[in-house]
TrEMBL record:
Domain Calcineurin-like phosphoesterase: residue ranges: 1-155
Single GO MF annotation: hydrolase activity
Source species, domain of life: Bacteria
Organism: uncultured Solirubrobacteraceae bacterium
Cross-referenced Pfam families: Metallophos (PF00149)
Protein name, entry field: Calcineurin-like phosphoesterase domain-containing protein
Record-linked InterPro entries: Calcineurin-like_PHP (IPR004843), Metallo-depent_PP-like (IPR029052)
Length: 371
């Protein structure tokens, strides 16, 4: 069986940043799928923080229909929930909690579309003739390969994003997170209430208020280390001083440890540390561990291989994203590990292979058209 793994499509993201809604950018992926048996969307396939659930399937309709046609009746699509589309699986989890105590989540729970709810059922209709299955919080792709979105790592990453601070506060004061022998339900106890609040805000408002924290994190990063630092040096210096003071205070409150360095290497190290800690606490015994979430694909030849090994010994592979993030992208194609359009291809044996499917597109062709 040949499996293609992608993540972080964010179909429905505002301002045209979700590249797979554009037919010319879907074409390389569809060509890859014609020789595959299974597509795994490793979380955040749908953007459910910017628009209500009721609109999500129709927004993704062209992509879903073309994927189903490319895979054909013998093909399968597996969708995992992430932090931005946790709503795909939250109804199923809540239904089980209504009749049984917490603790039922294993590392690889499979759901049928009817069990997941109306959004998954509509996605299954659009993907026909290919078959849809859902999995959460991860999936064993082979006996030696485990894959998950990676949002559990927000409890351990050293990068002080707004979401990291929120879940850190939950873990500090509201729930107990075991240092050893944790279960998926332990992570859900800290994360799910935050996702539920964002979900309700989005469902009951036509605006994207629940996604404001993401934009704030991006603006802060560009001011501290990106282009805005050079354009507004005095403001950047002031923000840097405030940032260092805030991190020191948060560490003192027990929400850390957090990193004062927000450079691109620090972002990479923070994400890998977080995912490695998830693997250790959950006891994920796999030679290979795939995740997305950070949008930073790898490892690439210039990366230090030692950074990409979890405490369990698993070799970590990140599937990248299909989102246009100009603050991470230089002019030259494929010159950044954040260059969108990566996929991981997995055959019956051998290591996972990372492929750049949008490497032939210069940055100006990836950029959304002006509004």
């Amino acid at each position: 069986m040949r499996t293609v793994v992608i993540s972080d499509l964010h179909l429905g993201a505002p301002r045209g940043r979700d590249l797979l809604r554009r037919s010319e950018l879907r074409a390389p992926l569809l060509e890859e799928l014609r020789s595959a048996d299974r597509l795994v969307i490793l979380g955040d396939g749908l953007e459910l923080r910017h628009a209500p659930h009721r609109d999500a399937a129709e927004v993704a309709r062209p992509f879903l229909e073309e994927v189903g046609a490319a895979l054909g009746p013998a093909g399968q699509v597996v969708m995992l929930g992430g932090n931005h589309d946790h709503g795909l699986v939250s109804g199923w989890i809540d239904a089980r909690l209504a009749t049984e105590p917490s603790g039922f989540l294993g590392l690889d729970e499979r759901l049928t579309p009817p069990a997941a709810g109306p959004l998954a059922e509509r996605a299954a209709e659009l993907l026909a003739p290919a078959r849809l299955e859902l999995a959460y919080p991860g999936i064993w792709l082979r006996d030696d390969v485990y894959a998950t979105h990676g949002h559990y790592s927000d409890l351990h990453t050293t990068m002080p994003t707004f979401e990291r601070l929120a879940v850190g506060a939950m873990a500090r004061w509201a729930v107990r997170m075991p240092v050893h022998g944790a279960r998926p339900d332990d992570y859900e106890a800290a994360l799910a209430p935050i996702y539920a609040w964002m979900h309700q805000l989005t469902q009951r408002s036509e605006s994207a208020m629940a996604s404001a924290a993401t934009g704030a994190s991006t603006r802060t990063w560009t001011m501290l280390v990106g282009a805005e630092r050079r354009r507004r040096p005095l403001r950047a210096l002031g923000l840097k001083a405030a940032y260092v003071s805030a991190v020191t205070a948060l560490d003192a409150l027990g929400i850390g440890p957090l990193d004062r360095d927000v450079s691109a290497p620090a972002l990479r190290r923070g994400g890998l540390h977080g995912m490695g800690e998830v693997a250790r606490r959950l006891g994920i015994d796999a030679p290979y561990l795939l995740f997305g979430h950070t949008h930073r694909s790898g490892p690439w030849p210039d990366d230090d291989p030692a950074e990409w090994v979890a405490p369990t010994g698993a070799r970590i592979v990140n599937t990248g994203s299909w989102v246009y993030q100009p603050h991470f992208l230089p002019e030259a194609p494929n010159s950044s590990p954040y260059w969108p359009g990566t996929a991981v291809v997995l055959d019956d044996a051998g290591p996972p292979q990372i492929r750049r499917l949008l490497g032939g597109f210069p940055r100006d062709r990836l950029a959304p058209a002006p509004a």
